[in-house]
Amino acid sequence: MRKAVLVSLDALFDRDLAFLKPDGGLRRQLDEGTSCDQVKTVFPSLTYPVHTTMITGCDPYLTGIGHNQPFQPEKEKKERAWYWERSCVRTDTLFDAVRRSGGNSSAILWPVTGKNRNIRWALPEVLALPGENQALKMMSYGSPLWIVRMEMKYGHLRSGIGEPGLSDYAAAIALDVIRSRQPDLTAIHLVDLDEMRHLHGVFSKEAMEAIARDEDRVASFEEAIRTVKGMEDALLIVVSDHGQEDIDRTVELRALLCEHGLDKVILPQSNGMTAYFFAVSDDAEAVAGAYRYLNEHREQFGISRMYDAEDLRALHCVQGPVFAAEGAPGVVFSDLLEPFKREAATHGFGPDREGVNCLFSVSGRGIRRGARLPSMPMRDVAPTIAELMGIRLPDAEGVSHASEFMVK
């Protein structure tokens, strides 16, 4: 089995490559390896569905992860659980495949990996709900003794879960486990750029600074692979999950449904720039009527297009929503009755938006230098990684492009 370091740069997309430093770690990664900057993200472009597809090779209708959170309309936002546990994923993952092959993995803040016994060193991405303790929750979902040791060594780097401190903390832990344990697969999720874009805008000064920090983090992983004994043959893999778009209008869907008398028929779940609609009535004609009403009043509801059940099947969407809506340019949807958190930019859009083009780049011995691949779906990432590592991922519906990455 060939070792791999898998680095996810949340919210990086193809237009960002124009802003890379000529001598930066990410530019060097692209120059020294094979990459595709037209990897089409999943629907909707939310972090948890995309990261699950990345490590399973399956779209949301198979993984069961079609949102960051289950549909919980009865709960306030702060009380809503997320898809934190491995048991939520219905298909095989790269971490499971590594373990089956006799290897060990580490996952640092990788979504939907909590309580995964196939991950040897796990710092899960979980958040304490009201009445819970954050430290205790992380330890119960991950590797408790190892988490304590990492917190004692690197806890000073962060302040709560804010950025860039959280990504500095996560990167330090990933480097530590690479140097001390040399896992067969090390996967790390860095959220610095995503948060800066949410707070300040897609091409804000703060976002550009976050890209520069991510370039430095990529360089640190490159150096670790080059210098740590036992890692010299490892692959460095950089991926991203979605871009973002600036927003200027919040549409409170649930309040509008109440206003128009539709809340007894359907209820929304915001995906950001799209929204799911779930039937709360058994009357199929009433549900169909609600779809027609929204379609006829798109401008009033901030909608640019509707997705019916057939559209959602074609998009490999998770089962459950009866239909969905795409926001008009600049629109973000809210499904809460209280004011929506103000953001400058967001994602969660459909397949025709600018931010769907993501990055997949691999470098290392035997990988073609400076090669560029055309478009590929996100579901092809995991089987490609599996073949390059020499492990099997039998559940994957995507196809491997490993032969296109390797020197002939």
Identify the notable features of this structure and list them briefly:
alpha/beta, about 20% strand, nine-stranded mixed β-sheet, four-stranded antiparallel β-sheet, globular, about 400 residues
Brief description of this entry?
Strands 1, 2, 3, 4, 5, 6, 15, 16 and 17 form a nine-stranded mixed β-sheet that branches. A four-stranded antiparallel β-sheet has the order 9-10-12-11.
Write the layout of secondary structure elements.
Blueprint: E1 4-9, H1 25-32, E2 34-40, H2 47-56, H3 60-63, H4 94-100, E3 105-108, E4 121-123, H5 134-141, H6 144-154, H7 165-181, E5 185-190, H8 192-200, H9 205-227, E6 235-239, E7 245-246, E8 249-252, H10 253-259, E9 266-270, E10 274-279, H11 284-296, H12 298-301, E11 303-307, H13 309-314, E12 323-327, E13 331-334, E14 345-346, E15 357-363, E16 371-372, E17 376-377, H14 381-389, H15 402-405
Parallel strand pairs: 1-5, 1-6, 2-16, 2-17, 3-4, 3-5, 8-13
Antiparallel strand pairs: 2-15, 6-15, 7-14, 9-10, 10-12, 11-12
Describe this structure in words.
The chain is an alpha/beta fold and 408 residues long. It is 34% helix and 18% strand. Strands 1, 2, 3, 4, 5, 6, 15, 16 and 17 form a nine-stranded mixed β-sheet that branches. A four-stranded antiparallel β-sheet has the order 9-10-12-11. A two-stranded antiparallel sheet has the order 7-14. Strand 9 (266-270) and strand 10 (274-279) form a beta hairpin. Helix 7 packs parallel to helix 9. It starts with a strand and ends with a helix. The model has no long low-confidence stretch (mean pLDDT 96).
